[in-house]
Amino acid sequence: GQNDGEVQHVNQVGSNAHPDDYERVKADLARTLEQNEVTMTEYRVFVEGQIRWIRVKREPVWDDEQRRVVSVIAVLNDITAEKEAEIALRESEYRYRKISESLSDFAYEKQINPDETLEVIWTVGAMPVVDQFQPDIAATIAYISQTSHPDDREKLIEDFHRALNQEIVTTEFRALVDDEYRWMRITRRPSQDKSE
Known about the structure:
Blueprint: E1 6-8, H1 19-35, E2 39-47, E3 50-63, E4 68-78, H2 80-102, E5 106-112, E6 118-125, H3 137-147, H4 153-164, E7 169-177, E8 180-188
Antiparallel strand pairs: 1-4, 2-3, 3-4, 5-6, 7-8
């Protein structure tokens, strides 16, 4: 991999770029070579099987006698931490925008792990909701069966599975709260891990 501030030969710049970024890297390099422009590009590279974010600044070296760019000084910086923070912020803002569209009394996000255990990421409000803090998918379904009205259980569990299959689902149902059934509406908005 490259260290911060490392100078690299022009032919190496972008050679290990992510396929989605390669054409942009190549176009910026062409501007430096053909138009004698200083360019800067942020792009992803593969380093030891992992994706890292790189910022490269290219400064052309012009030869008046040959009237062309004869070399390029390219200085690279690893900006992975900065980019990951930007991406996390955008994803957080997106989630909260989605919440604001449907927020009433209570909202939460739960992560589904590969072993089907559930992890509460955050909560907003204090309204008791079916399946709120169950440790895994099986326990969630069992809890739904215990706390929802018998006439609503089948539909509620069916909609829960639809959400697991990447559908946005809104369900109205009766839940047992403080020894009485209360009507609730729950909207589940699944999201995928973009890093996978």
